[in-house]
Amino acid sequence: MELTDARRTLYEWVANPALRHHMECVAACMGAYAMRVDPPQRARWMLAGLMHDLDWERHPTAAEHPRVAVAFLRERGVDETVLHAIMAHAPYTGTLRDTPMAKHLFAVDELAGFIVACGKVRPDGIATLEPASVRKKLKNLSFAAAVSRDDIATGAAEVGSTEDEHFALCLAAIREMREGIAE
To answer: What is the span of the domain harbouring residue 56?
Structure first.
């Protein structure tokens, strides 16, 4: 599945603009990490990010998400490495994060959402948001309370980055993606 087809599928399956935006942000972060880890496979890494929550709106239970999306994508010939990463981003599936793609997808998922939340409370959005500001907001447990701080810390460690390096890479990727888009 090409990214163009994936975006079409995204718009067919996901009505919520905030969820679509989240999936695009995760894809951008995955693309940035792929350039460090596996440049020739950048499109596949971005595909994993773009499709990771495809079924969340229709099938938000642990019994179905992300299994429904993985079955759908498998029928369309999506590579098993991408499908494995999508399964592994949801720890309750029992799928091990034993590939670089799976580790990075888990690492960027919660962080991308948190960065967007940080931008929503700033006059200039994420334009001047720095890793230190993200770290400070993480300490405020009532801010974006649904975001797992443990998952963010675990993800950074699993990909071998300091939290500040992890935050900086994802901030830059989301900024680049959002360039010219109002917050």
So the answer is: 3-178
